[in-house]
Design goal:
This is DUF2179 domain-containing protein. It is a multi-pass membrane protein. Keywords: Cell membrane, Membrane, Transmembrane, Transmembrane helix. It holds the Pfam family YitT_membrane. The protein is α+β, with helices and mostly antiparallel strands. It has 2 domains: 175 residues, no CATH class; 85 residues, Alpha-Beta Plaits. It is built from 10 helices and 4 strands; from the N terminus they run H-H-H-H-H-H-H-H-E-H-E-E-H-E. Helix 1 packs across helix 4 and helix 1 runs antiparallel to helix 5. The two termini are 38 Å apart. 31% of the residues are buried.
Amino acid sequence: MLIGLEIIAISINFFFAPQKVAVGGATGIAILLETAFNWNVSVVLLSINVALLILAYFMLDRSTTKKIMMGSFILPLFLAITPQINVVEDRLLAVIVGGAVFAVGISILYRIDASSGGTTVPPMILKKYFNIKPASSLLVIDAIVCIFNIFVSGIEAFILAIFSLVITYFIMNYIETGLDRKKVLYVMSTEAGLNKLKEDINANVDRGFTIFDAKGGYSGEDKEMLMIIVENQNYQQMLNKVHEIDPNAFIIVYNIAEVHGANLSGIE
């Protein structure tokens, strides 16, 4: 949790705050107030987090309040002790790198079911009392913060903030669904082709396969279909092997994020 919060602090103090770009959330509000009135980012963020913690205490359950309490106090502390340095002069490059770094920090917190507090509180309240999806309300809050860039830092800062939000979203989605991505192949072939493919996999490839019973929609014949999971780097090799055994084999390929419950050499 501490690593995730420090990564968020680095993204703010190294990339967003020096460029006067507020990308949403309580930290975005703090950047706007620093730009407009020269208020200290960490002090503003602490004030916002304390106010929202009080709101959470009265409107949410105690366990939720405890979960967000630590991040609400530690992130402002890390922002205070992490120097604010303009490490990238180009604003576009700064928000690209900042968005990526921010996404890594937030994803670490999500992985351990932790929170940095701030504007994650209002969506929880809206979900509890009005059944509004947290993702939708958080998007609206972030959008409002981004719009205020126009009045504080100009239209360019607004465009950069939106761009950075998009980068953060895609990187978070990629990290949260797993970095160790694989491919799953569903293969249908003739009986002789499948038998040869099964023999080849068992003899030469360090992984198993699963056999499904299937029926041809046109012929109505009972068939077998193989499910084979491979690492991305081994995908082309497996595809070439299938085509070598049966050039007319029917193959469906999916990208998958994670495999749980068995290692690849034992899926049978």
